[in-house]
Amino acid sequence: DAGITQSPRYKITETGRQVTLMCHQTWSHSYMFWYRQDLGHGLRLIYYSAAADITDKGEVPDGYVVSRSKTENFPLTLESATRSQTSVYFCASSLKTYEQYFGPGTRLTVT
Amino acid sequence: AQSVSQHNHHVILSEAASLELGCNYSYGGTVNLFWYVQYPGQHLQLLLKYFSGDPLVKGIKGFEAEFIKSKFSFNLRKPSVQWSDTAEYFCAVNARDTGRRALTFGSGTRLQVQP
User: Fold this and answer.
1) A62 part of contact set with chain B, CB < 8 Å
2) Which among B24, B19, B27, B20 has a CA at the least distance from the CA of B6?
3) Chain A contact for B2, CB < 8 A?
4) Which of A33, A50, A98 is nearest residue B32 as measured by Cβ atoms?
5) Smallest Cα distance from B96 to chain A, Å
6) pLDDT at residue A2 greater than cutoff 70
7) What DSSP letter does each residue of A47-109 carry, written as one string?
8) Across the interface, which of A45, A103, A104 has its CB nearest the CB of B102?
């Protein structure tokens, strides 16, 4: 049971480059979420999706793009990475209940 | 929009000490409440949750939390901590009556248990 996976687990990129973080879940959960975790801020919601082709902004969406063509995948793209986007990114999913299940995270460093 | 406050940012306890971590939220409607734990280098795991019913909820690893609606609080407790409880603890709230599924997290409390 793979659950929810994220790739890559670690990524270093340069300012201005585009980078895509992948999230894949094997549970067929309808809801998927992207959070970023920064010291002193806890987790903040970037984008979420209620189903394939349905996405909505969260608290900190600027500079990010998401898509969800298939239920199991929810990639997050940084169109032009900035140093302020250095963070740990967590993907999560949930089914009908409100509890969310988190992936292992991607540590992104923008130089 | 709702917000969540965790007033204890860093707590240091000795093994066998009792633990209480505070969590307050600001939302006047119906809420779902959660505590998540993040062990060093790992992803978030659900400790316990409250949706409705008995305001005292029990979770995994001997943790419990009490929902006090009048105080907008959902404090986490454990009678006797162990070194293995060293982790970061996050309180989270979902405003159920909005229909939104997203969680709002507190900034976290880092618990350090000394042997």
Assistant:
1) no
2) B24
3) no
4) A98
5) 9
6) no
7) EEEEETTEEEE-SS-TTEEE--SSTTB--EEESS--GGG-EEEEEEEE-SSS--EE---EEEE
8) A45
Per-residue pLDDT tens digits of chain B, which is 115 residues long: 679 999 889 999 999 999 999 999 998 889 999 999 999 888 899 999 999 999 999 999 999 999 999 999 999 999 999 999 999 999 999 988 887 788 999 999 999 999 8
Considering only CB atoms, A48 lies closest to which of B42, B49, B102, namely: B102
pLDDT of residue A1: 55
Nearest to A64 by CA among A87, A42, A41: A87
Chain B residue at shortest CA distance from A58: B102
Per-residue pLDDT of A49-70, as tens digits, reads 999 999 999 999 999 999 999 9
